[in-house]
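ugh ok so i messed up the first submission bc i forgot one of the chains. this is the corrected input, ALL of the components this time, i swear. 996 residues overall. if the numbers dont match what u have on ur side tell me asap before i send this to the collaborators (the ones from the other lab, u know who)
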Amino acid sequence: MLDEPTATLSDAEISRVFGVLRRLRDSGTSLVIISHRLDEIFALTDRVTVFRSGQHIWTRATQGLTSAELVHAMIGRDLVRGGHVASIPSRLAGSLRVRTRSLAVPDRFTAFDLAFAPGQIVAIAGQLGSGADAFVEALAGLHPACTGHVELDGEPIVLNSIESAHAVGIAYVPEDRAGKGVFLDAPIGVNLTSHILSQISKRGWLSSTVDRSRALSLATEFQIDPARLPHDVSTLSGGNQQKVAIAKAAAMQPRVLLLNEPTRGVDIGARAEIYGRLQNMTQTGMTVIFYSTDLEEIMEVAQRVVTVYRGTVVRLLERGETSSNEILHDILHGSSVPEAA
Amino acid sequence: MRIALSSSTERSGSNRSKTHMWLRNQFVPARVQATSIQILCVVVLIVAGISVPHFASMTNLAAIIYSTAAIGTAAIGLAAVTLCGELFLLSTGATAAFAAIVFVSSLGAGPIPASMAAVAVGLISGCLQGVAIGPLRCNPIIASIAAASVITGIASLLTGGRTIIGGGDASWLGLGVLFPGLPHQGVLLVVATLALELVVQRSRFGRELRLVGINRVAARVAGLRTRTTVLMGCTLAGGAAAAAGVLIASQSGTANLLIGSDLNFGAIAAVLVGGIGIAGGRGRISDAAFGALFLAIIGNLLLVKNLPYEAQLAVKGAAVLLSVTIGAFLGGKRR
Amino acid sequence: MKTHIQRTLWQLILPAALLLIFSFASRDFLSSGNLYALMQAFALLGLATLGISLTMIAGEFDLSVGAVSAVAGLVLVKTGESHPVCGIALALLAGLAIGFANGALTRALRVSSLVTTLGSMILLNGLAVWLEGGQVLAYNNFDEADLLDQAIAGILSVRSLIAFGGFTLVALMLSFTRIGRDIRAIGSYRRAAEMAGANVSVALYIAFMLSGMLAALTGALTSVSLSTASSRFGADLVLQAATAAIVGGVTLTGGVGSPAGIACGVMTLTILNNGLSLLGIPSATILLLNGALLFVVLISGGRRLLPRWIATTPGRNTRT
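and heres the new structure output, hopefully the right one now
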């Protein structure tokens, strides 16, 4: 059984893996492959089973199946536009918040030339291993080896560490909330103020009044029960933990908020609250850039979508001009010409 | 928001629930071991005082306090290292011995300057180890074993293995008592514990120390100064170990390489028994002091009952393993 | 990608260089008497280092090797005066049992072995003091000492042959048996090893038991030669074994290390200490230099292995 066997492989390595798999199949081994890659599915398999949202959609022979049918099964109908997108406040339109030129991380992605406005919510869409997540991480300062230029509000910045990103007002919410996003064994209140210790302390001593009031205001903003502030984050549900993770980064009032899989493993209710919060935060001009493999989420929240395939940008899609079909096509195939049915 | 009109009954009710809350908080899984040790200290003291002859004499109580003072001082510094997730330093004994030698050698200038010199040496020792452990991410136990060997070697070169006899008077520190049964050293330990506890609970550094211990990776994401924090923790531990050495040396006015040979295991046992979690982030500085007190009481009891030295070692080793087991059990075996 | 042979050749450079330097620095260095002493020291440190390295390769660390060697020596002296084979067997058995206990504690408590072996080290210290009973113990079986230490071909002895045998057996185990591969696997990436079917428990137990047994062997051989045992023996063993192991290419993060490299590391340290002592440097200073060497090696290794935090690290406490 293989789970995304070629997610992070180069072309040469992929063909070697295909060879091994075919030999195994010929010698009688049965193979079950979990994959999103259409070319892989069509090249290797005899039968395809599609799951979506926990439901089995169908199982068919690969022979005779078209990619259009497969894609349609994977995402269902096109989604109705969600109510979470507002337009950019007019006073902010026209200025650039983030601008990258030839930004690249060796072995992950090359030469991204992108620009985002203040108050914009941008999704970077791509499969695992496409480099889309690495782009978000690079902006957060997690890839000191990155090359190229980044400008924030017109000023060039250096992103060689998390500290350097923090210093210019870039906050990051990682994908693994239990492992990296929150302090599970610390109280919620302590978590909420963990990014802004300099603001809640004076000459090295914590001011408990400021600590408490900031924590309280963040909790109210993010709809976290204030009575639970002294309790450890580990007592919260996944969705509420994620709210804490986002809230503590937002506490910095950053110019750019970066998120890696913002609502992975989060229930519907908390998702709606998070989307609403992200929306509200952009009203003050905060730019939100997130990486996601969840097409529904991208369609619901993002005003602009950057699709990435195998380390290069495929397209920039604006809300209202795109469908999830197109996004999926880009991240699975990479070409910007829609495949003939 | 309701406006609470507090009548006298309502007010006393809320007071009662506050104490109730405080009491309950002492027994949550994260605090139960620490609280138990504190209770046990009182219980054992009382029971032993009643049932064991000579236990409650002023001299014996003072002996317990002297024993607690040295190990407790080293332990509260070591606790800073444990709290930030770096396990332990095994150089506590070596630093104490070296500091004791420095203290005794400079005693001619007066006990206060000599103490300061000794503590400075300890801070430097801790700082150098901290550089390796914090910014350079070396394994703390191996690094401290290496450091201990270097420190002992330097001390050996300086003293030629002989005992140094001091040329001044440190009797206030070493032998002075506030009143019979309460040596100055005990008071100093209490003051030091309170001061360090305040720093860890209320300062920005203390908050960072704890968060780094809870999850170092999340601390980096939050932009905390993880490397500096660990460095500072190790420096503190070095200074505390040195202070312990000063306390020991002041009792006799002499110092040699054997000082502090108990401190390594004693301080670690005190930290663990007191309820500070080995994974980091859990526990308070005062826990280490209570752990030292508890072990001192037990050790004293063993002595009074004429049990040999190896029994003490066995008890310490067993205490370490038992505390770790309990900690693992309570913490849900989070690795 | 260097082959195994190439890597070993590189690792031989350091001890060879030291050999050269000391043979020029001291006339007596290359005498058969000194070379014999060198091999004797190599044998003792080598066995202990081999043991501790196995736990390091498995991603753990056995802090109790020094204490085990002291206890083993005491067991031998107390039980084996008239029945030397019995005594040695009991000592080795004690080592195996302690290793088993270490493995069990580490596995059951799921905490870092640094902590569990620290606890057992303290306990064993107490046990050693108890066994000693406050006396200086004498082991009067000089025939056995002669047997083990008599010079063969001028510079070897039964003791050094035992050490060579140990290295060979461990090398064969690591390369050709399933347990050996499992030990490496659980050190490299424990979760992946578990999913690939490695028997983590068995590998851990074997690593710790071998470490205990080899440490016990070290203690037994020491006590036979010196005709005495003491709770203070083995105090520097962890320091020197760890230094030799890391110099010999064994990493603290696990999964890496070979007996050939370990032998080179032990050789380096033994030659260094022997040469320095021949030059009249006092033993405390030699220990100082060992500590400094360990520090340097730790620091230089540490920076290269600085974990980039976005990579999932297998276990919090497996680190440099």
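quick check: The first helix of chain A runs from residue 11 to 26. that seems consistent at least. Chain A has three domains: 2-75, 82-169+254-341, 183-252.
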